[in-house]
Structure formats: structure tokens, C-alpha cells
Specification:
The complex is a heterodimer of chains A (290) and B (614). Chain A is an all-alpha fold and 290 residues long. Chain A contains 10 helices and 1 strand; from the N terminus they run H-H-E-H-H-H-H-H-H-H-H. Chain A has helices at 2-27, 37-46, 58-76, 81-101, 105-136, 152-168, 187-190, 196-221, 232-259, 268-288, and one strand spanning 50-53. The mean pLDDT of chain A is 89. By secondary structure, chain B is mainly alpha-helical. Among the domains of chain B are: 210-497; 516-560, no CATH class; 565-613. Chain B has 25 helices and 5 strands. The two termini of chain B are 37 Å apart. Classes of the chains: A mainly alpha (290), B mainly alpha (614). Chains A and B meet through strand 1, helix 3, helix 4, helix 5 and helix 8 of A and helix 15, helix 16, helix 20, strand 3 and helix 22 of B. Strand 1 of chain A pairs parallel with strand 3 of chain B.
């Protein structure tokens, strides 16, 4: 069952990326690319030869597998949030090392910025998780389902987690997936030296990571229980609602991406400062019982 | 005390679980470091000096073993002092270097200032217990007045805090640890500073007993400051061994988070959670001993192979020193808390102790604990950045100088030492569920809580902080999943193998002259952090143009450094004050014998007056 879910997860993950791009383009009154474009891209990368820098060592070669493994393992471990953060950081660690490995200035830039952003986002994620766990009694965020609606504290914590997700999935205003401008890029700067099959694995891993984050946020903001013991029409309705929540989060991401501009790197401190305050308020609300 | 009595009490100490734990910690780090030292010292020093060094090292290890096993405060002090002095001699082992002498002086002054507080604390305890024996002190401390207990606690905290390197008493650590030979750094950072944690646990938790909430709160606050200050300075430093020394300050902070949290919970009568918190602290203690020992050994190998510790001059060592690179990577992953290695398990446990403890705690304090946990997360994020920098700059990309080009892999004895510790880093991660129960016994013993029936592991595979809760961790299974997923990725990769993989240059924007000067430097890597934490680091930057005119510039100099806030605003004024008062006192020393005779006469007169009057 779990394996089946994970397989479905891998297959659906790029679709979610395509969906966000599609919504963005629709909102901008552009025709835009097909919703299936991420699949075409992955297929293209997988079927191309790759160029490996002569400066690179074995770290550069194994990094795509470690990154892919960490993303996939996060699907297995979906739920226990603290372990999940650490599993994500394994992939990030190797991606940052691989970026330094080729000796390119872009790589170093991306690596330094990525570690900067992630170290600021971690306390926000931790405190938001703390706020949620104060009410559910466990760091397993998906255990957060005994309530039909999120409490005030969980809503605020969910918003804080949303800010973390923006950073983790390289979205505006922290990073921009659509550009290769050296002044602004973070994630793209790190994978600049990758091509072909390795790039495909890394991209797939990014899609999976993005989906995991969206699932977590959907669960915190709009909790649903596991479909245990329900069959027939209720199960279909459950599945429908499950998907609708995910799409809702995707719509919010798209709206945010077209509504705000990319921030200067050092504004990220304020960004996460805001997130931290939100998470602290969420924790206070949880203590007060809201 | 008769001779046989003395023998029984001091020499044949009864070994309890707490001592046993520290004995084990000391041995698993010092033995590989000792093996390593044979290769490391060879050709660096004369045979006679090597012999002296090895004898000193052996005695140093012995003194640490005695410190954690004696059951008498007097014997503890003697062993403590011997340990401090021996480590001083080892710090100044490179006595021809000016730097070593200076580092040694700072170290010996700081450590004795700390010991003075310990002596004071012990004498106060002796006054009430009328004995130096641990058992009697433990009994007597139950009837100690609260204010005496508080004073003793503060003295012990300052005394042991100096040795452990708690901020702001950490000032000696980044000087002394890097200056010693690397296997000594490994022992000092890996285990010697842990004897101070032993002292805190033994004297505060075990002997005094905690019943004040503010003790725990104070230690938690100090621990957080140590964590953040340590890791931020570590991020800024370009000297590899100094970076590791600052990182020790950070990790002592993480260990103290566990200890402080245990005190906090004990004062609130939450014995179960206190055990979990102390368990996390002890687990991180042994983990830090292992990976910091390992990283210092690797740093020593890099130094031996290249002759420099400056990261800006290194690079590309992964090709010339593959094994050292691999071991350093394992250590860096461990210290960055990456799954499934050991640092990950202990930090996860610490976070769980904060989260679950906060859930169970009644009344106030919940948000404070959440804040502490968030700071721990920030620390671990910054530590990961720090070690991406360290590994990336030293071992990856192209060599940045001739030092790095000429590097060769180190001899076999050094490799054995490193590999052993790297293996332990992995074992202490994967086997966490087996290790955790004996550790909980140690924690329970230290806190004086009965641990029968306490079980933190499920089938020796899964760790469960609270039975029945869904928050569990199985490092072995995580490792298996990671490996399987990695293999799946590899299988997919292989499935498309008909496509070529061409080696070519790194993309250079069509410049065709990309070389090591275009690589990111350690200073460059830490720049965003320097700007974000500029309120604390106070970076200084100056550029100077040298040229014939404004328009034609031959060369430029660029200088940047950060201000060491504690040194500049606490230690330097204190030192200045000391010298000033010494100069002031010198005025009564004119050097004329008549004046001294007058002093004697006045003193005698005053003394007679004093005796007659009172």
C-alpha cells in the first residue's frame, strides 16, 4: 500500500509543478506551456548525454543519487516532521557540496546562499512544528487529524510553514525557478553544472520535495483523517477533497509568485524573522488553548 | 584517615555507571588518537621530543581517567589540576612558536581562574559535610541551606564552565586547542572539555540535587548563547583547527541543553522527561567526542600533508588524500546532524525532549522550551553550513596553492586512527536503539531516579521517546530506505546508459581561463552570514588602491576581519584594569630600604593595635 502510494507520489510530483506554472500563466493571461511540460523536460533530460566537469570528484557524481534518495525517503517518512527536516538537509548538504565541487563561481554562490537560507528557515520550521505538536502531542504532523478544522494556532503555524516551503522549493520571493540570473539565482546556480540523466534525477527530486511540502501544509491547514474503513462513494469524496486541498495550496503559491517581486538575498532575514514571529504567536496560541 | 582507609577511598574507587560512561568515552577517543600520533609525530619532531610527548600524552589520558573515577573531592581536585597542567605542557609542545606560548598562557590563566572557583565550592561543601567523600557530601547536601546551595552551584558553574568553554568563558579554547599537536587537540576537544560536563553532572545533579527552576533556566540560556556564538564564529574562521575549536563551543552548548533541560524538568518533578533530556545530552556528548576527535585527526592529516591550516590555501584534496577526505566527510555529516549518522540521533532526541517535555509540562515554560528548541534548530542549520564550507573549500574543486598541490595521503597509523572513529560515527548512528537503554541507566543514576522498567527502544531497532506516541525514530531503517532509494535512482540512471557522459571543463561563460582564483573562497562562502549577523560580528573592511594615479591602479589590497566581541569588550578591559591597578600598586614600591622599614614598623604598630583592641 505504502509502496503504491509512493509510486503514485513519484508520478504525480512533476504534475504539481506543471500545475503551478499553468496557473501562473493563466493568471498572467499567457497561453503558457502544457501542464505536462515537466514530464517532457524530464524525458528530454533522461535521453540526453551529460557533460561532467573535469574538476569534479566523486562527490559530484554521487550527489544526484543522494539527493534523489533523500527526496524519496522523505515520502517514506512523510509525517514525523523533525526526522523529515533532517532527511531534507541530507540532500541539501550534498547538493551544496556538489555545487562547490566543480570550482565554478556560480556553484559557490548558490551553495553559500542555499546554506544561508536553509539555516534561517530551520528554526521557523521547528517552532511551527512545536506549535502544532503542543496540541496534537506528537511531532508527527500527519497525526494532526482528530480535528475537523484547524485550530487558530495550527492556521498560524501553517502560514509560517508556508513561508519555509517557499524557501525550500526555491520560489519567489526567496528564489526564482524561472531565471538564470547570477545576481539572484540560488537553486539554479547549484545545479548549473548538471546535465542529462543527473539533472533529470535532481529535478525529479525537487518535484518530489515540493510535493511533500505541499502535502504537509495542506494537512496542517486543512486536516483530513486517514481513509480507514471507508469504501465506495465516501472514499471517492475523500480522495476528491484530498486532491482539492493540494490544488488550493498550489493556487496560493501561484498567486504569491505573481503578486510579489523577488527579494534581495539579505531581506531573507526579515522574511524568516516574520516567519519566526508567526510561529511564536502560533505557539502562544497553542499554550492558551486556541 | 589511616593508610589502608586512604587506599580504599581514593585509589580503589567504586566505579558507578556515570564514571563508567565517561571512562568509555575517554577511551574510545584517546586510543585511536594515540595510534594516530605515531604517524603524526614522526619526522615533525626529534625522537627525544616525541618520547617526552608520548609520555606526557599517556599521563594526560591517565589523569583524565582518574578525574572521572575518584570518589573524593580532594583527589578530584588533584587529578583535575594534574590534567590541566599536563594539557598546558601539551599545548605548548611546539614551544618554538610564539603563538603556542601565548595560547598556553591564556589557557593556564583561564583554567586556574576556573579551578579557584572549584576550590571555593569544594571548601564550602567540606565545611558543611566535614568530609571530602562524595557519599558523605551527598548526604550532607540534603540539609544544606538554599543560599549555600545557590552559591555552590554558581561557583561550580563558573569553575566547570571555564573548562567546558561556555560563552563567555570560552576565550581560551580557540587559542589552545588549535595550537596543540592534532592528536592532542582531538583529545582536548573530544574528551577533556567533557570532564567539565562530568563535573557538572556529578556535583550539581548527583551530589547537590536540583530543586531550583532557575538553575536549569540559567544553564539553558547559557547553552543557547554558547551554541549560537560558537557556530557563528566557526562559520567565520578560515583556520581549520580554529573552526573546529569554535564548533566545540557550539557542541558543548548542545550537550548543556540536555543537561540544563534535565535540571529544569527535575525541578518540576518530571523525572521521566529529565531522564530523556539528560540521555540526549549524554548521547550528544559521546557523539561529539567521536566526531570532533575524528575531525581534529583529519585536520591534523591535512596539516601534515600540506603544512597549512589556512583553508584559503587548500582545495582539491579529495584527489590526493581520498581517505582523509572520506573520513572528514563522515565526521562533517555526523556533526551536521545528517541521517543516519550519530549527530542526527542525538539532536533528534534533544528536540523530542524539548517538544514532548513541553507538551507534558504544567503551567508556564512551554514557549520558552519551544524557543530553545528553535535555537537548537538554528544552530544545527548553521553547523551544516559551516561544514559544507569546511569540506567544500578544503577538499573540493581545484587546489588553491602549491601547498595543496603537493599533498600526499598520510601514513597507515594515522589512517587507522581516522577510520576507527569514522566507523564509530556510523555505528553510533545505526545502533542508536541498542545504545540508548544503557545510556538511560546512566542518566537515571545521575539524577537519582529509579529506571527499572524504563525502555526507550523497540526491538533494538526503533527509538521511542514515549511509549505509544507516533514520534519514533529508526536510524537503521532510515539508512536502509536511503540506500534502497539511492539504488533505485542509480538503476534509473543506468537504464539510460546508452547516452554518453563526456568530461569537459566547468562552464566558464566563454572565458577559457577558469582557474582556482575563480573559485569561491571560505571568506566568500560565509559572507551572507557575516552580513546577517553583522550586529554581533561587527565586520571591518578596508580597501586600499596602490597606483600611479586615480585612473591607473597597479594593485589593490583588501582587508576584512570580524571583531571578537567578548575579547574586545570583556577581556581586554579586564586585562587593562589589572595592569592599571598593578601600576598603581607599584607606587608604594620605591625601592628604598628606609621606606620598607617604615612599612614594617607601621604594620607591627597596626597589628599590636589590632590585638589590643579586639
Amino acid at each position: 500500500m505504502k509502496l503504491l502510494m509512493i509510486l503514485v507520489g513519484i508520478i504525480i510530483a512533476p504534475l504539481l509543478g506543471g500545475l503551478i506554472t499553468k496557473i501562473k500563466n493563466d493568471l498572467r493571461m499567457r497561453q503558457g506551456q502544457s501542464i505536462l511540460q515537466p514530464y517532457y523536460n524530464l524525458a528530454k533530460y533522461f535521453n540526453k548525454g551529460e557533460v561532467v566537469s573535469g574538476t569534479a570528484s566523486w562527490i559530484f557524481r554521487i550527489a544526484p543519487f543522494v539527493i534523489f534518495a533523500s527526496a524519496l525517503a522523505s515520502l517514506f517518512y512523510l509525517g514525523e516532521f523533525l526526522a523529515l527536516i533532517f532527511i531534507f538537509s541530507l540532500g541539501r548538504f550534498f547538493l551544496s557540496l556538489a555545487a562547490l565541487d566543480t570550482g565554478s563561481t556560480f556553484g559557490g554562490m548558490g551553495s553559500s546562499r542555499e546554506m544561508f537560507i536553509s539555516s534561517l528557515s530551520e528554526p521557523v520550521a521547528c517552532l511551527a512544528c512545536f506549535a502544532v505538536s503542543l496540541q496534537s502531542g506528537s511531532t508527527d504532523l500527519l497525526a494532526w487529524k482528530s480535528f475537523p478544522l484547524a485550530t487558530i494556532s495550527a492556521l498560524i503555524a501553517g502560514v509560517a510553514l508556508f513561508l519555509v516551503m517557499i524557501a525550500e522549493t526555491a520560489r519567489i520571493p526567496i528564489d526564482n525557478q524561472e531565471t538564470h540570473l547570477e545576481l539572484t539565482m540560488i537553486h539554479e546556480a547549484m545545479i548549473l553544472e548538471y546535465s542529462g540523466r543527473s539533472l533529470a534525477l535532481i529535478e525529479l527530486a525537487s518535484y518530489i520535495r515540493q510535493m511533500v511540502w505541499i502535502l504537509i501544509i495542506a494537512q496542517v491547514l486543512l486536516p483530513v483523517a486517514d481513509p480507514v474503513g471507508i469504501t465506495g462513494l465516501p472514499l471517492i469524496l475523500w480522495g476528491f477533497w484530498y486532491a482539492v486541498r493540494v490544488i488550493l495550496v498550489a493556487i496560493v503559491i501561484s498567486l504569491l509568485e505573481i503578486a510579489v517581486a523577488k527579494m534581495r538575498l539579505f531581506r531573507a532575514v526579515d522574511f524568516f524573522g516574520f516567519g519566526f514571529v508567526l510561529a511564536a504567536i502560533a505557539a502562544l496560541c497553542a499554550v492558551l488553548g486556541y | 584517615m589511616s593508610m589502608s582507609n586512604l587506599f580504599n577511598n581514593i585509589i580503589l574507587f567504586p566505579i558507578d555507571p556515570l564514571s563508567l560512561f565517561f571512562l568509555a568515552t575517554i577511551l574510545i577517543v584517546t586510543i585511536p588518537s594515540f595510534v594516530y600520533s605515531f604517524g603524526y609525530l614522526k619526522k615533525e619532531y626529534s625522537p627525544a621530543k616525541i618520547l617526552i610527548g608520548q609520555i606526557l600524552t599517556f599521563l594526560f589520558v591517565l589523569s583524565m581517567l582518574v578525574v572521572v573515577t575518584v570518589s573524593n573531592m580532594l583527589a578530584f581536585l588533584v587529578a583535575w589540576e594534574i590534567m590541566s597542567l599536563l594539557s598546558y605542557f601539551l599545548v605548548v609542545f611546539d614551544s618554538e612558536h610564539e603563538k603556542s606560548i601565548r595560547a598556553g598562557t591564556i589557557y593556564v590563566v583561564m583554567t586556574h581562574a576556573g579551578t579557584a572557583f572549584l576550590i571555593a565550592a569544594f571548601l564550602i561543601l567540606y565545611k558543611h559535610a566535614h568530609s571530602f567523600d562524595f557519599k558523605l557530601v551527598k548526604m550532607a547536601s540534603q540539609s544544606l541551606p538554599a543560599y549555600i546551595k545557590n552559591i555552590v552551584f554558581i561557583f561550580l558553574l563558573i569553575g566547570f564552565g571555564t573548562k567546558a568553554g561556555i560563552v563567555p568563558l570560552h576565550i581560551w579554547l580557540p587559542y589552545a586547542h588549535p595550537q596543540a599537536p592534532s592528536h592532542i587537540s582531538s583529545m582536548m576537544s573530544g574528551v577533556m572539555i567533557k570532564t567539565a560536563i562530568y563535573g557538572l553532572i556529578r556535583f550539581v545533579l548527583y551530589l547537590l540535587g536540583v530543586n531550583n527552576t532557575w538553575w536549569g533556566t540559567l544553564i539553558l540560556v547559557l547553552a543557547i548563547i554558547s551554541c549560537l556564538v560558537g557556530v557563528i564564529y566557526a562559520l567565520m574562521d578560515q583556520d581549520l583547527k580554529k573552526l573546529l575549536a569554535y564548533s566545540s563551543v557550539e557542541n558543548i552548548g548542545i550537550i548543556l541543553l540536555g543537561v540544563g533541560l534535565a535540571m529544569y524538568f527535575m525541578s518540576k518533578n518530571m523525572a521521566y522527561w529529565a531522564i530523556l533530556a539528560l540521555l540526549a545530552g549524554l548521547y550528544h556528548l559521546i557523539n561529539h567526542a567521536i566526531f570532533k576527535g575524528l575531525l581534529f585527526l583529519c585536520a591534523g592529516s591535512v596539516y601534515k600533508a600540506t603544512g597549512t591550516r589556512n583553508m584559503e590555501k587548500l582545495g582539491g584534496l579529495i584527489r590526493t588524500m581520498p581517505l582523509t577526505a572520506f573520513c572528514f566527510l563522515i565526521g562533517a555529516m555526523g556533526i551536521s546532524a545528517l541521517p543516519p549518522l550519530n549527530g542526527f540521533v542525538s539532536e533528534w532526541l534533544a528536540l523530542q525532549a524539548f517538544f514532548m517535555g513541553a507538551w507534558h509540562i504544567a503551567g508556564d515554560g512551554k514557549v520558552f522550551l519551544g524557543f530553545c528548541a528553535a535555537m537548537l534548530a538554528l544552530t544545527s542549520g548553521l553547523a551544516a553550513a559551516c561544514f559544507v564550507k569546511a569540506f567544500g573549500i578544503i577538499f573540493l574543486a581545484k587546489p588553491r596553492s602549491d601547498y595543496a598541490v603537493k599533498a600526499v595521503e598520510v601514513p597507515i597509523s594515522m589512517r587507522i586512527g581516522m577510520l576507527f572513529l569514522a566507523g564509530l560515527t556510523i555505528i553510533f548512528g545505526l545502533g542508536a536503539a541498542i545504545i540508548i537503554n544503557p545510556l538511560s541507566q546512566v542518566a537515571g543514576f545521575s539524577l537519582g531516579v529509579n529506571t527499572t522498567g524504563l525502555d526507550f527502544s523497540l526491538n533494538n531497532i526503533t527509538i521511542q521517546p514515549l511509549a505509544g506516541n507516533k514520534a519514533v525514530l529508526a536510524p537503521l531503517i532510515i539508512a536502509l530506505i536511503l540506500i534502497l532509494c539511492g539504488l533505485l535512482g542509480f538503476a534509473v540512471y543506468r537504464a539510460f546508459r546508452k547516452k554518453t557522459s563526456i568530461p569537459y571543463n566547468t562552464w566558464d561563460c566563454g572565458y577559457y581561463q577558469l582557474d582556482e582564483r575563480h573559485e569561491y573562497t571560505a571568506t566568500g562562502f560565509s559572507k551572507p552570514f557575516r552580513i546577517a549577523f553583522s550586529f554581533f560580528l561587527r565586520p571591518y573592511r578596508a580597501t586600499k588602491k596602490i597606483g600611479d594615479s586615480f585612473y591607473h591602479i597597479r594593485s589593490m589590497t583588501y582587508e576584512t576581519h570580524t571583531t571578537l566581541v567578548f575579547k574586545k569588550y570583556i577581556y581586554e578591559p579586564a586585562l587593562g584594569l589589572t595592569f592599571k591597578s598593578a601600576r598603581f600598586m607599584r607606587r608604594i614600591q620605591p625601592g628604598s630600604i628606609h621606606v620598607y622599614l617604615a612599612y614594617i614598623a607601621i604594620t607591627i604598630f597596626l597589628l599590636i593595635l589590632f590585638v589590643r583592641k579586639f
